[in-house]
Amino acid sequence: MLASPLSLLAVAVGGAAGSVARYLMLTMVMQWAGTRFPVGTIIVNVIGCTVMGVLSELAALAWSPSPELRAFLLVGVLGGFTTFSSFTLDIGLLVARDEFMAAAGYFLASTLLSVVGFFAGLWAVRSLVSVSL
């Protein structure tokens, strides 16, 4: 099944918005934390995965977004905001500087915290929905 032109436009616009948001977030975090360790990418991925968990669970339990809105938010905005291509680039840069422990710590922190963020988002929505029912 091919995507509709409207869904493709939604992904494109959402991806642009998410990418700009990621750039702004990374810039702010680098000003605060410096550039030696990719803290910004961890923060972006954890936030993005948490929001993905919230929106996924809302869509499953209490919200019926249109296919275009789902494409805009989940594929476009969050796909543009979180990026594992930046994640792999950051690891590559740490390895190139022979900072193997930092690379390993970054890999573990990014992976574990992003998965925890996703499930935290699911849990938050389930808790709120069960309270309101």
UniProtKB/TrEMBL annotation:
One of its GO terms (molecular function) is metal ion binding. It catalyses: fluoride(in) = fluoride(out). GO terms for biological process: cellular detoxification of fluoride. Pfam families: CRCB (PF02537). Keywords: Cell inner membrane, Cell membrane, Ion channel, Ion transport, Membrane, Metal-binding, Sodium, Transmembrane, Transmembrane helix, Transport. GO terms for cellular component: plasma membrane. The chain crosses the membrane at residues 42-64, 71-94, 100-125. It is found in: Cell membrane. InterPro entries: FluC. It is a multi-pass membrane protein. The keyword Isomerase does not apply. Its main location: membrane. Na(+) is not transported, but it plays an essential structural role and its presence is essential for fluoride channel function. Na(+) binds at residues 79, 82. The keyword Ion transport applies. NCBIfam families: crcB, PRK14195.1. Belongs to the fluoride channel Fluc/FEX (TC 1.A.43) family. Fluoride-specific ion channel. Important for reducing fluoride concentration in the cell, thus reducing its toxicity. This is Fluoride-specific ion channel FluC.
